[in-house]
Amino acid sequence: MDKTQSIVIVGAGVFGLSTALYLAEDGFSSITVMDRSMPPVPDGSSNDISRVIRFDYGDPVYAKMGRDAYELWNTSPDYADSFHRTPCVWTAQQSGPADLVSAGGSDFIRKTKKILTDMGCEWHNLDNVTALKDRFPTVSGTPIGAGFEGFYNNAAGWADAGLAITGLRDRCIRAGVSFVTGRHGHVTSLEKGSDGGVTAVRTIDGGRITADQFILATGAWTASLVPSWNTMVATAQIVGFVRLTPEEVKRLKDLPIIFNLSTGFFSFPPHEQTGYLKVACHSFGYTLSSSNVSSPPSEAISQRANFIPEEGRQRLLAGLGEILPELVARGFEKTCLCWYNETPTGDFIFDRHPEHKNVFVATGGTGHAYKFLPVIGEYIAKAFLGQLPADLAERWKFHTDYRSRAQDDLFTGASARGGGDGSRGGPGRREFTAQERDRLLTLTNALVRRPAKI
Ligand SMILES: Cc1cc2nc3c(=O)[nH]c(=O)nc-3n(C[C@H](O)[C@H](O)[C@H](O)COP(=O)(O)OP(=O)(O)OC[C@H]3O[C@@H](n4cnc5c(N)ncnc54)[C@H](O)[C@@H]3O)c2cc1C
Ligand SMILES: *[C@@H]1O[C@H](CO)[C@@H](O)[C@H](O)[C@H]1NC(C)=O
Ligand SMILES: *[C@@H]1O[C@H](CO)[C@@H](O)[C@H](O)[C@H]1NC(C)=O
Ligand SMILES: *[C@@H]1O[C@H](CO)[C@@H](O)[C@H](O)[C@H]1NC(C)=O
Question: Under a CB-based contact definition with an 8 Å cutoff, are residues 399 and 351 in contact?
Answer without folding.
Answer: no
